[in-house]
Fold this protein.
Amino acid sequence: MPTNTYVDHAPGYVDNEGPKIVTSRFGYEDSYTLERSLATGGYEGLRTALTKAPADVAAEVKDAVLLGRGGAGFPAGIKWGFMPPVWPRYLVVNGDESEPGTYKDRLLMERDPHQLIEGCIIACYALGLNTCFLYVRGEMADAQERIGTALNEAYEAGLVGKNIMGTDVSIDVVLHWGAGAYIVGEETALIESLEGNRGMPRLKPPFFPAAKGLYHKPTIVNNVETLANLPWILSNGAQAYKEHGSEASPGTRMLAISGHVNRPGVYEVPQGVVSFRELFYGDNYCQGIKDGNELKAFIPGGASAPWFFDDQLDVLLEAKDAGAAGSMLGSGAVVVMDETTDAVKACLRVVRFFARESCGKCTPCREGTSWEEKVLQRILDGYGREEDIDLLLDIGKNISPGEYPVAAFGKANLEAVPFPPKQTTICPLGPSSVAPITSAIRRFRHEFEAKIAAGPQNDGHSQAPEASTV
């Protein structure tokens, strides 16, 4: 058997002190193998589940208050209850992690694929279905290979397929590779892609996946980390799960922390009891801002989340607290920016991503995100106009209607920015591009004004932009 000691085969993961519900095997070199999984309690949660009625398994998950880890934070057990008694029906696993700053699901798929597979089987059993589609992002070659190998091992061992563990339960797991598109992280666009169509979101209603999903049959779409919690819950019980974290947000969650901190990486953190201050400065976590610099801003939940500032450091890592402060925990990606960060450049970097990833189905998103990018680039190149700042806000209002006050920079003004965003689009991609713009202008408008006032720099690289109607 390979060595039991930790080796650096899980780049990006930080083995901090605290409860380990989904990362307990990351310290083993062979954590992705069936042998290691079985030696450390793997598939015991499934064995326990198979001794219960499916409805009791679903009730256990509901009682645990397992919140979805894909961004919305909706309780998985309640979501499961939305499925009508129609067959066939399906489970779809969203492994298309692609928002800037996110890489925790990739580590789960690479380091412990058997935990994910076990979670898939438990969910299928609880929902009374026999087919699961595991959708993995196209660029994640290692994750695809590890999951494919793990599925072969699980089929050979009778843990997946016909008569699982000698019972009359038969469940198949189908591994599907995506082609690489941020938009298919949206559940209906993912379903379109699975069906062989271009990845574009569907209108909701009527196409809520639980009612009309894959092949227009009832479908539950769950995130990788959400399902990875199920083996622990079934092995230890809902009550033990709720002993970690807070009452409203039990358990732990994985956070991918990047940017200007001394110890970036993926952490497993108890929910609702750790603040961003402790996360950034605590010895058990990021150990301070890089080079002793001051914090300027941070994105608390992926690129689509409005930015937080130093006066939000004491917000707890809990969905309701982050929401009350005007943002969200989202996909578990935290990006830290110190005082050396150029707010205009940071804003453009995020907006450019959304402009490139827009599927083009909705006019406000297709046109608006491109206009936002062009105006920001013009300002950064030194050819900005005084009216460009208000133009950016006006474009934002057309994509995501609301009032975006920018004159006051104090904490009392933070709640004035509408969140969750209103939409003129089918999915939230377009409105997500507005968040970095309103965040940066509201707090750092003077940086935009300074670049506009400075004009083009004689560095030999800046050229006057082509004529534009924007």
User: Anything to note?
Assistant: The radius of gyration is 23 Å.
